[in-house]
Specification:
The structure holds two protein chains of two kinds.
Chain A lengths: L19 E12 L2 E12 L3 E5 L6 H8 L7 E6 L2 E2 L4 H10 E4 L11 H11 L5 H14 L15 H13 L5 E5 L7 H16 L3 E5 L3 H7 L2 E6 L2 E6 L1 H6 L4 H11 L2
Parallel strand pairs in A: 3-8, 3-9, 6-7, 7-8
Antiparallel strand pairs in A: 1-2, 1-4, 4-5, 9-10
Chain B lengths: L26 H9 L4 H26 L8 H12 L8 H5 L1 H6 L8 H19 L8 H16 L4 H20 L5 H30 L15 H27 L4 H15 L3 H15 L8 H27 L2 H9 L4 H31 L11 H10 L8 H29 L5
The chains are: A alpha/beta, B mainly alpha.
Subcellular location (chain B): Cell inner membrane; Cell membrane
GO biological process, one term (chain B): amino acid transport
Protein name (chain B): L-glutamine ABC transporter membrane protein/L-glutamate ABC transporter membrane protein/L-aspartate ABC transporter membrane protein/L-asparagine ABC transporter membrane protein
């Protein structure tokens, strides 16, 4: 797939702890009358890299958006870092500042420079002094390899660069969990690799990641668990080797044959 | 170069350099050819238009620039014109020269106090500049913040204690809010600070002010009643106050209209729809005539203040809708990104949403500002002596009976200069705030 050969990952570095990062218990969600998420049960340990796959409309984005309450669930429990998500605004803002998120369309703030995009949340949510926030921002911009763009505006950057800034922006809040909602789906093929490389690096550092993506190469290489969703339910989950080589359910087999078939 | 033959294979061995565009395809000559002489029909139209513009200017330029600038009456002016040209086909600008004070300050403003409006005007410019241009030192914002109080003191006179007391009320509100915010939520904080300010303004403030005025009046100026104000001065007072107040009020209304709280939403929608649905002149008549019936008999609620309130409320309803348009144009992702970073509602609004929504709304906002400023002429109908009323009075006077064009052209020109400056500023601001591809 589009993952380049030269960037290989040392899987021995990837460790999963016993500590629970996210726990979802019997979670259900409806859009009006439509039952989008049905009885989702998922426990994510710290250090896990989970890739969520599935056809469009299967509820995979909705599920990870529930974890930082961009979507509200109606039944069941979501516990993030020991805090249960309720309608209490203080809890929500606390969880949101611990959970980073990258979107399909980057959602950088176009009226702010790259640096300002990265310093905004640390300064206003964490009350970090400006100079310190800028140092943190430059550190992470260097990490995603675009420190030289710090004073430009998002509109002047390529898609891949914008997505890397979005990752850096999330990292500036020092999150313990990262959510990725189809981070490469809006990118030109040439730019997918640079974003995936950044994500691989993050995985190597032990970040807990939940990633909705169609990059099966990435899933095979980085994930320790692949989850397949269809019609709002978790249909199958397994280790990547087993998932790709020996899928159990018919729905999964069909899906894999469709996306890997060409 | 690789020789091309019938096979499909082809490899480029060198990359072509950029070449200049062909002559006549760029610059002014291309523009003229494409826009003015692109065909026989366009060529005819261009020539006819040029001829029309020429004849118009031929009549207008001598009329305007050959006019008389000093005369005491229309008769005298015409006599001069007759003597100079043998006809009266030239402008009598002398009316503006001779009645300058009446047009600028209104009929009743005491001439010994004109200097106060001059000082207020200069300070106004100084107060507006730091708002318009962020390259200026931020310390100038102190002038902007103090200006409303100084302006009231300069125009209406009296002791400086009154305006200071009003300012102190704001200070109390701010202080209370910063203390209360430590213990209370944002809603209760706002309520508590508003109550504290009102207690000062309504009960404590007036007592303190009258005591201070009796013992040591501070820089007391001669008092000027609202009905003595007029001319360009009153237009600027109402226009600038309305503009300065309607933007924040419009933002609040626009946010309120999108609120999840049904009561807030209902109040805002009702307010906006009511004020947009009523002609401004009706509101002004209400302000000048009816409001007195509803207020307690002894309350003195200044007429100018009432007009400013009405004009502000009226424009803020339009402003709210303009800003709502800007809010609607923002992609949902911006709200989500702000949420995902843990920013609360007010911080997200202030740092992410409003800067972008207001930027999108600049043309509409300035449109509303321009409309508001021109609508200040409507105060003529409730007996405020603005420039149009001055023109009416001048025309009724035996010395200038019969003059029309010069007066109204001049007044129109004043409004045009103000509105055109606003328009140019907004275009400049839009260019400055463009952050994509520069």
């Amino acid at each position: 797939m589009s993952l380049a050969e030269d960037r290989t990952i040392d899987r021995s570095k990837l460790t999963v702890s016993d500590e629970v990062a996210v726990q979802i218990v019997n979670m259900n969600k409806w859009y009006g009358e439509f039952h989008v998420l049905r009885d989702i049960n998922l426990t994510v340990n710290r250090g896990e890299r989970i890739v969520i796959a599935g056809p469009s409309g299967s509820g995979k984005s909705t599920m990870i958006r529930c974890i930082n309450r961009l979507e509200e669930h109606q039944k069941g429990k979501i516990i993030v870092d020991g805090t249960e998500l309720t309608s209490d605004l203080k809890n929500i803002d606390k969880i949101r500042s611990e959970v980073g998120m990258c979107f399909q369309h980057f959602n950088l703030f176009p009226h702010l420079t790259i640096l300002e995009n990265c310093t905004l949340a640390p300064m206003w949510v964490r009350k970090t002094p400006k100079r310190e926030a800028e140092e943190i921002a430059m550190h992470f911009l260097e990490k995603v390899k675009i420190p030289e763009q710090a004073d430009k505006y998002p509109g002047m950057l390529s898609g891949g660069q914008q997505q890397r800034v979005a990752i850096a922006r999330s990292l500036c809040m020092k999150p313990r969990i990262m959510l990725f909602d189809e981070p490469t789906s809006a990118l030109d093929p040439e730019m997918i690799k640079e974003v995936l490389d950044t994500m691989i690096e993050l995985a190597e550092e032990g970040m807990t990641m939940l990633c909705v993506t169609h990059e099966m190469g990435f899933a095979r290489q980085v994930a320790n668990r692949v989850i397949f969703m269809d019609q709002g339910q978790i249909v199958e989950q397994n280790e990547p080797e087993e998932f790709f080589n020996n899928p159990k359910s018919d729905r999964t087999k069909l899906f894999l044959s469709q996306i890997l078939g060409h | 170069m690789v020789k091309q033959n019938s096979t499909i294979a082809y490899v480029r061995s060198e990359i072509l350099e950029q070449q200049p565009a062909p002559r006549g395809q760029v610059g002014a000559s291309k523009w003229v050819r494409e826009n003015l002489f692109s065909g026989w029909f366009n060529t005819i139209l261009t020539l006819v238009s040029l001829y029309l513009v020429f004849t118009l200017l031929q009549a207008l330029v001598p009329w305007a620039f050959g006019g008389v600038w000093t005369a005491d009456s229309l008769q005298e002016c015409r006599a001069i014109l007759n003597e100079r040209y043998g006809n009266t086909h030239h402008a009598c600008w002398a009316v503006i020269n001779e009645r300058w004070n009446q047009i600028v300050y209104g009929t009743f403003f005491p001439s010994t106090e004109y200097w106060r409006t001059h000082v207020a005007f200069v300070l106004l410019i100084l107060a507006i500049l730091p708002v318009l241009f962020d390259a200026l030192p931020r310390k100038m914002m102190w002038i902007t913040m103090a200006y409303p109080f100084v302006m009231v003191w300069l125009i209406w006179g009296g002791s400086l204690w009154g305006p200071i007391s009003v300012a102190v009320g704001f200070g109390i509100a701010y202080f209370t809010a910063s203390v209360a915010a430590r213990y209370l939520g944002s809603g209760l904080t706002a309520l508590v600070s508003a109550v504290a300010a009102f207690v000062w303004w309504m009960i404590l403030g007036p007592i303190v002010v009258s005591a201070l005025n009796d013992t040591m009046p501070l820089l007391a100026l001669r008092e000027i009643q609202s009905r003595e104000l007029g001319g360009f001065v009153i237009s600027v007072i109402i226009g600038v106050s309305g503009i300065a107040l309607s933007l924040p009020l419009g933002i609040i209304l626009a946010l309120g209209r999108q609120s999840d709280l049904p009561l807030v939403k209902m109040i805002c929608v009702g307010f906006i729809e009511f004020l947009r649905g009523v002609p401004l002149i009706t509101l002004l008549f209400t302000a000048s005539l009816l409001l007195n019936y509803f207020l307690p008999p002894d309350t003195e609620f200044d007429l100018t203040l009432r007009v400013i309130v009405m004009v502000t409320l009226f424009s803020s309803a339009y402003m709210a809708e303009v800003i709502r348009g800007g809010l609607a144009a923002l992609p949902k992702g911006q709200y989500e990104a702000a949420d995902a970073l843990g920013l609360d509602y007010w911080k997200a609004q202030r740092l992410i949403i409003m800067p972008q929504a207001l930027k999108i709304s600049i043309p509409g906002i300035v449109n509303t500002f321009i409309g508001l400023f021109k609508d200040t002429t409507l105060v003529f109908f409730i007996g405020i002596f603005d420039m149009l009323a001055a023109a009416q009075a001048i025309r009724a006077n035996s010395a200038w009976n019969g003059i029309t064009w010069e007066l109204y052209i001049f007044i129109g020109l004043i409004f045009w200069v103000c509105c055109f400056s606003m328009s140019r500023y907004s275009q400049w601001l839009e260019r400055k705030l463009r952050t994509d591809h520069r």
